[in-house]
Amino acid sequence: MKGFSETVAGILKFLGMRTFLPSSSDVKGFAEALENEAEIIFMADDDRFIAAPGLPLGIPIEELDQIQPRLIHDPLQLGVATMIYEILKGITEKG
């Protein structure tokens, strides 16, 4: 019997999607998916199953060169950008 990842990949292939399985799991596997320009990333553990757009957040490959200088890839930059977004969201929601 195949493992969970192989089964999910098989289902996605049946639905017509191009798939690959990263050689690593967790963060290393996520990074590998991004490096391979995955358009959708499926991840799961015992409690959750998620599907998320690949970085840069579902932007078509053709447009990637145009925005590349503005992309944030560094984890610290992503964390700071997320904090700023959450702060601004809270301020605008309070009016």
Topology at a glance:
Blueprint: H1 4-14, H2 26-35, E1 40-44, E2 49-53, H3 61-67, H4 75-94
Antiparallel strand pairs: 1-2
Brief sketch in words of this structure:
The protein has 95 residues and is mostly helical. The protein is built from 4 helices and 2 strands, in the order ααββαα.
Give the tags:
2 domains, 4 helices, mainly alpha, 51% helix, Rossmann fold, single chain, 95 residues, 2 strands
Structure description:
A hairpin with a 4-residue loop joins strand 1 (40-44) and strand 2. Strands 1-2 form a two-stranded antiparallel sheet. The protein has helices at residues 4-14, 26-35, 61-67, 75-94; strands at residues 40-44, 49-53. The protein folds into two domains: 1-58, Rossmann fold, CATH 3.40.50.12150; 67-95. The protein starts with a helix and ends with a helix. The protein contains four helices and two strands; from the N terminus they run H-H-E-E-H-H. The protein is 51% helix and 11% strand.
By secondary-structure content and strand pairing, the structural class works out as: mainly alpha
Compute the gyration radius: what is it? 16 Å
> Can you tell me the number of structural domains?
2
Mean pLDDT: 75
> Got a strand count?
2
> What is the C-level CATH assignment of the largest domain?
Alpha Beta
Strand content: 5-15%
Reading the helices and strands in chain order gives: HHEEHH
Flag low-confidence runs: none
Widest sheet, order of strands:
1-2
Q: What is the third-level CATH name, the topology of the largest domain?
A: Rossmann fold
Largest sheet: 2 strands, antiparallel
Q: Helicity, in percent?
A: 40-55%
CATH architecture designation of the largest domain: 3-Layer(aba) Sandwich
Can you count the helices?
4
Distance between the termini: 55 Å
Shape: extended
